[in-house]
Amino acid sequence: MRLRPRADTMGDERRILVAGAGPVGLTAALALARAGMKVALFERRDSANQTSLASTFHSPTIEMLEDLGAARGLLRDGQQVPAISYFDHGRLAVRLDMSLLAAQTRHPGRWHYEQGRLCLDILTLLRGMPNVALHFGAPVKAARTLADTVELQLENGTVERGAFMVAADGARSTVRESLGISFEGIDYPARVLRIMTSADLRHFLPQAEPISYLYCGERSVSLLKMPEVWRIVYRLGADESAESALDDARIRQRLADTFGPFIGAAAPSAAAAQLPVTYKDVYSASRRVAGAWRAGRVLLAGDAVHVTNTRGGMNMNCGIHDAVAAAHAIVSAMHAGADPDAPLQAYAAERAGVAREQLIPRTDGNISAGRKRLEQMQTLAADPAALTAYLTRASMLDMLPACHHPSHRESTH
Questions:
Q1: What is the pLDDT of residues 36-55, one digit of tens each?
Q2: When comparing pLDDT for 322 and 264, which is higher?
Q3: 384, exposed or middle or buried, with CB in 10 Å at 0-12, 13-18, 19+?
């Protein structure tokens, strides 16, 4: 198929291309547009990505979105998480108070908000910006980077050109693959069963916080309060099939077993088994890291360069941080004249280091400790200084992009 350039290039030498309309790509597009760049975004779907596995927004991510004018819906309609609770055989074992972070952030704690809703919030902002062109139903086939230009080939044969590009087209990134960048890693052996219920689980656990972990021996169940539902998350054994886990009778038995220790009577336990299930699914997770965060004038971000397990809710947040850092690097490169390489290379080195040295080890640590993790939390709760340090790490406040660090922000204003 012969490639044909588009006529509406918006000025190739000043236009920034973005691939992917998930939370990372949309954040990158918004940050670039807010900085005065001309942005063209391409998404293979007919609308913004509404897939919603991620739901946790940490303090620094909320601040970044707030700085971009994109946090209003999240802060208004999201579920605030002021504390995290751990239960042991039906009894409250420890409560971690997130207000200990008040000196470090405008928003101590976490918020639960469906990532699909954030995508719609940002998309609404982008649609009102004259320097943004949105192209849905436009799947990307390949990208290549030249001396002073990026070329993006769409599946229909169209070639789009721009000065720089952010590739945020997910774990199966066609941009990454077309650039020959590796994506090595493993699949986690355990899959995850996710159940959603419209019932208020605090009927069974009055002391439950919006994030609660229920321990019974080495097994644990995670509870997350969303604005409209509770998520109940189980990690499945290696020998349990998805079909078995999703069987209605099996789900009912799991619910009775989970909440039985908190009830202690047969009738309420039976009531727990009859909780209304509004959604259920089984999903798997992988741990993969790209071989490079950059190819010339193309910067990769989010799932295109790192994926990991969902416990702790860090991967999407890290991707949004990538997006903010990538936009800052591109704006810096645009003002660097003939030598834009330094800010792009700094982005690649910084974000690769964060993913490899902090994100992956930290998320792996969240799932590997078993019951020792509960004992660890009990020890931390008795030491406010140690607990504050732990919550700082758990909230990703020590993983800030350099461009968002307070000292940098003050020096650039």
A1: 999 999 999 998 766 667 88
A2: 322
A3: exposed
27, 29, 8, 33: which is closest to 18 by C-alpha? 29
Tell me the one-letter amino acid at 130: P
* Helix spans in 248-309 (H): 248-263, 266-273
DSSP, res 406: H
Q: What is the pLDDT of residues 60-93, one digit of tens each?
A: 999 999 999 999 999 999 999 999 999 998 889 9
Q: Determine the average pLDDT of the residues in 227-249.
A: 91
Residue positions counted in the chain? 413
Starting at the edge strand that comes first in sequence, how are the strands of the sheet with 132-136 ordered? Answer: 132-136, 38-43, 15-19, 164-167, 298-300, 294-295
pTM (2 decimals)? 0.91
Work out whether strand 56-57 and strand 110-112 pair parallel, antiparallel, or are unpaired. Answer: antiparallel
Amino acid residing at 295: A
Sign of CA dihedral 401, 404, 406, 407: positive
Rounded Cα distance between 295 and 291, Å, is 11
Q: How many other CB atoms sit within 10 Å of the CB of residue 339?
A: 8
Task: Classify residue 228 as exposed, middle or buried by CB count within 10 Å of its CB (0-12, 13-18, 19+).
Answer: exposed
Kindly give the residue spans of alpha helices, DSSP state H, lying in 148-206.
Answer: 174-178
Which residues, at least 6 apart from 124, have a Cβ–Cβ distance to it below 8 Å?
none
Say if residue 40 is exposed, middle or buried (CB neighbours under 10 Å; 0-12, 13-18, 19+).
buried
**Separation of alpha carbons 277 and 290, rounded Å:** 37
Rounded to whole angstroms, the Cα distance separating 230 from 197 reads 5
Locate 129 and state its tokens. Answer: 């910006």
According to DSSP, the β-strands at 110-112 and 15-19 are unpaired
